Amino acid sequence: MTLRFNDLHPLLSGAGQKLYGGEAISQLEHALQAAHFAQLAGGDAAAITAALLHDIGHIICEQQDHDVAAGIDDQHEFVAVTALKDLFDQRVLFAIARHVEAKRYLCATEADYLAALSPASQMSLQLQGGVMNDEQAARFAASSYAKDAIFLRRCDDQAKVVGLVTAPLNYFLQIAKTICISKELA
Ligand SMILES: [Fe+2]
């Protein structure tokens, strides 16, 4: 499934009202908060866009909480990249594609990172391949996408605050629009 830019708003505001797996906020709130923290941390339009859309694969898959409990990983990061490939360049796509690996990397390289993850995120870690070994971590750190993926991951981890007020969806979609590569918008 590939998306057009105009699909993003209905998808995030519609199906995005569902709870974000195992957390107390909706998918839409999680997306807005991730974009909010990306902007707060000085991220550029690509970083903010990646944060806003990083879990759109979850919405597309309509994964239910019990999928994780049943040991099923929906590979949502790759579903998102396929869906967004006509809309954004590789910087956005790679950050999204690798944000799960960034979590596995940070668990391997930062002493307190694993313990600070939410219970749902700790549970999904096992389905996603667990903590990276030294060789995997070194390869990840040397990759061209590591910096963007780690930045996204940190925004993702913060974006679980019940009741946090952020700018609305249209505000962040306007930022995304500035870097959309689709000719549809020309
Ligand atoms: Fe997320």
From TrEMBL:
Biological classification of the source = Bacteria, Pseudomonadati, Pseudomonadota, Betaproteobacteria, Neisseriales
Task: Please state every residue range assigned to the domain named HD.
Answer: 28-116
Identify this protein by name. Answer: HD domain-containing protein
Species source reads Deefgea chitinilytica
